[in-house]
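Reference record:
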Amino acid sequence: MVRRQIEARGVTDPYVLAAMLKVPRHLFVGDALRDQAYGDFPLPIGEQQTISQPYIVAEMTQALQPGKDDRILEIGTGSGYQAAILAEIVFRVYTIEKIYPLYIKTRKLFDKLQYHNIVTKYSDGTSGWKDESPFDGIIVTAGSPSIPTPLVRQLAVGGRLVIPVGDQYSQELIKLYKDENGIHKTNLGGCRFVKLVGEYGWRS
């Protein structure tokens, strides 16, 4: 998976590649789909949500430029796979899920796999996690009609935000970098995610 789907398509960060090799992706999907877990496509995880294809997880993680001392906020815990990849690289991952059954299921999985540096919260992720801010990086794993302003505010100076932005059917992967002079935006190309639902995303 890593050699053919990820390295071959331009992901070069050694820490991202090592994390993708280490995390057992098949444990983040249902039993009936485990034989497909390492395929180059997203898979359903219930509640009308999906686990992203391995390549997009690696691409977004590399774009975030995670460092070993970083505190990262993830919006949309979902299966927990993206948070687990980040947890192999950074100091602490804060992750928010608004669908309660997924929140409970994934929290139990983190505990089982002993990811003690992942902190979870059941809430509307579009508002971020103000009490724990600022963050060195924020990653959003669902498509938003625009960039939620609370997330930009909760970025530290030097922080990065990676988020899919667009309509309900297709988005552009946007990276923001925040420095003393303001916000700098880069378009990383097309992508497709489920809707980011919340006060600062899609309303339904």
Observations:
- Residues 108 and 114 are 10 Å apart (CA to CA).
- The chain has one domain: 2-191.
- The radius of gyration is 15 Å.
